[in-house]
Design a protein that fits this description.
Two copies of one chain form a homodimer. Chain A has 14 helices and 27 strands. With 498 residues, the first copy, chain A, is α+β, with helices and mostly antiparallel strands.
């Protein structure tokens, strides 16, 4: 039986496998604060790379970053009726602004606030209040602002990266003069998320509107990107909301149009979060641990010097550092290649396994024999640990970019293949039940005709399945809803989900 | 009388001038949440530039970023005795984790927490708790981690950027095997802050240890950089703390050394915050508004097309966009020059004043006459608004980097000169009183001999003056403390402060 880096394997215990990949990949861990995670340096470096790419995409489409308060007065949450229902349940509430030591030396809350404050679960209301002040005339529009921030939603069953009380995200909030422009913005941001997921994270996604029952509280339409995890469940990996004039009316965000008439703005909001790291893990990691698409790998190549004698040591280290320098001057996808020499004094096997578990795309071992032969011994993280490729040392810097590209496209292909082999186009109710019942895992995606109707959610509920989205890129294919008989134009994705 | 962009002027009403510079520069504004500011896109872009430079300096000295929870259990704050005294007073306390709608449709806090949580005012305790878990052996050391985060300290007299309930900062937290190494780290980070302040923000600073009465709660030694604002007051612009083994002992952060003995770690922490934006304003801004050192100017050059006819418009805009492209390909200080074409349809005078108030280093007006003559008309923000420099259009892209360098060094020189002319080396008690009493403004810096003794703080208190730091770069100059007669080796900086 082959030895695996991670125990249990995906097949043995998927949820526990996930926790072990996170732990052994040194990505994050639970904190002493219930439901809040600590994102460790390796995990945070992945997030920084994601931020860098997304931030560039936001800015090149005209968005600017700003920062709004962490706290929201209770009365603000009350403004939009559906919004308050959706978010009221799970908030951290600040009620005091001072601590005092009591006679026993314990700290006790003092200074009760007149109006309690909520730690933002999302910022539509506080940002909307500012937009109401800032926007006067059509000349002030559009307002295109993004915020990178922490948010808090109290979670009863936290799970690192996927569902934590505090998480990091970006939230874009825009205001427009016309409905059309706001819808265009909503869809543009959805496209950016889909491009980023597939091109950079190598996570294939279906993008489209969600059924009304799954909408963001207060939105007119919620679009999402949906990815399939290796247990067959869907992960909603990003959302873009067309808010219509709902928030504008609740918060009085108005402008004077070109004809001097006062009108309500049309607004949008859109976000992705550190949940994407969970998606990355559950899309690519294997039974040896994390597998990183090179594009979001903090180190794309690790050089591992191997030596016994002092003499060998200096020659091997010299070679590694020279190679590092050459590699760092090469580019892949318009960025300098990220290389690390790991010359820590520890057992070679442990060191290699650490890099495997951290998902580093390329490991290069260099020892005295390689020096003598003028070769390097290369292992790709997307291939089995023992599989090695030997190439002339001199060729490697020239070929490194191609290797990274090959790994990036290979992990995407694997993910696409996995989704294909766990998806089924279904036209009968009974087959839907069978699809989700017969499997050991969560099943996968069923592509079916369903109407946007409460009856559908009700029918799917016993299967623990929901409508994820109705992909927009698919060709139109009229049909009858399996559960209501209503005519619909396209198939939707239904599945279990996180 | 000359017209000014900002009313009142510095001389008329310094605190109100500051508020008006912030407002008219579109940097930030008060939010509906007491004491919390909204950082607007222009202000936030300055912060992003600061972050980028500092983050690079941190990483190139071996630090990694991570992220720790926003919340700290009350019991953690109680662990270090001095720390709890220092921070207990001004915290936001989370006591509930749910909201429910009552019969009147109002939200009320529910779900009382067993142990209240504090919104982090700083993270020594929560990060220390993780370090205690992570650090086992000398092989795990040093731990060099930084966090970019929001923190909350309830402020009774908030002032935008300088003192707000919530602010953004970075906090570095490191753990070391030896005292010497931890002290070295503390001083290294102090140096990084001083370099950043002078080289990038063009803010001259004095750096050195603070008197014990001004130490961070729980620190063995606190070092700071101190800058002089244009009202003569000091701004503590960054701090670096040597924490000794105080936190390690309180939190049991231990390691096994090379001889297999268990020992406590030596720790440090260091931080700068969005307060630096306040420092930037109060160092460089003038009676026309913000003045940005080019290094942290989101746009370093703004191109202003001027035209009346449609024909002129297309020729002028073409010229602007060509020029932008050329400029963006030039570099200054290893970065592409940041250029914007402002072709908004608004009154030219208003437009120019907006850029003046936002502190854009170089404005370039381009109209049909310039096109015909093949020239551009350049205004530097560090010179009076009406002063203009004409140069051949073709020369400008080649000279832009020099111009930016010249502005950068000129604003630094102005700040150094200001500090010089508002500082005095004083050796008599009576002269100290006179120095701080006789001025219309806050006086400035007095360089004096004072001991690290409570008697000094007491003697200076009626003058509203404190000891800011004892600059380490100054030559030794033994003398007697003006207030205690004790022998000291160096002069210290005393002044009023923010």
């Amino acid at each position: 039986m082959p030895k695996h880096g991670i125990s249990p394997t995906r097949k043995e215990d998927y949820p526990e496998w996930y926790q072990q990949v996170v732990r052994s990949g040194e990505l994050a861990e639970a904190s002493p604060v219930r439901g809040c995670m600590v994102i460790k340096p390796h995990g945070f470096a992945i997030w920084e790379l994601m931020q860098g790419i997304l931030d560039g995409m936001f800015k090149s489409t005209g968005h600017k970053n700003a920062y709004f308060p962490l706290f929201i007065p209770l009365s603000y949450l009350e403004q939009e009726a559906k919004h308050v229902e959706g978010f009221a349940k799970e908030c951290a509430v600040v009620t005091h602004h001072r601590l005092e030591l009591d006679a026993d030396g314990r700290l006790v809350p003092k200074g009760k606030l007149e109006e309690p404050l909520v730690v933002r679960p999302t910022s539509e209301t506080i940002i909307g209040a500012m937009y109401a002040k800032w926007i006067q005339s059509w000349r002030d529009l559009p307002v295109l602002i993004n915020q990178w921030a922490n948010v808090v939603r109290w979670e009863m069953r936290p799970r690192v990266f996927l569902r934590t009380a505090e998480f990091l995200w970006q939230e874009g909030h825009t205001a427009h003069a016309t409905e059309e422009e706001a819808i265009q913005e909503t869809l543009q941001m959805l496209d950016i998320y889909a491009t980023f997921a597939e091109r950079d994270l190598a996570i294939p996604v279906w993008k489209g509107p969600k059924p009304s029952s799954e909408r963001f509280p207060g939105a007119v339409e919620t679009y999402s990107i949906e990815a399939m995890m290796q247990d067959g469940k869907a992960l909603q990996a990003g959302t873009s909301h067309f808010l219509g004039q709902n928030f504008a009316k609740a918060q009085n965000i108005t402008f004077t149009d070109k004809t001097s008439k006062e009108a309500f703005c049309w607004t949008t909001s859109w976000g992705v979060s550190t949940r994407l790291i969970g998606g990355l893990i559950m899309t690519h990691a294997d039974d040896d641990g994390l597998v990183l698409p090179p594009r979001v790998a903090p180190e794309q190549i690790v050089l591992l010097p191997i030596y016994r004698s002092d003499e060998d040591q200096s020659a091997v280290l010299d070679c590694c550092h020279n190679l590092k320098e050459q590699l760092e001057q090469s580019q892949w996808r318009n960025e300098n290649i990220r290389v690390k020499v790991d010359d820590r004094d520890m057992r070679g096997g442990d060191k290699v396994w650490q890099h495997i578990k951290q998902g580093i795309p390329i490991r290069v071992e260099i020892g005295p024999r390689d020096l003598a032969a003028g070769t390097v011994c290369i292992s790709r993280r997307d291939e089995p640990p023992k599989q090695k490729l030997t190439m002339p040392l001199l060729d490697f810097p020239k070929k490194a970019a191609d290797l990274l590209e090959s790994i990036q496209s290979n992990v995407l292909k694997k993910a696409v293949d996995f989704r294909e082999s766990h998806s089924s186009t279904i036209d009968k109710k009974a087959e839907v039940s069978e699809f989700f019942d017969s499997k050991e895992d969560a099943g996968g995606f069923a592509y079916v005709h369903v109407a946007d109707d409460p009856a559908v959610a009700e029918a799917l509920d016993p299967l623990k399945v929901t409508v994820r989205c109705t992909p927009m890129d698919w060709p139109e294919e009229p049909g009858k809803c399996l559960y209501t008989g209503k005519s619909v134009h396209r198939r939707s994705v239904i599945s279990r989900s996180y």
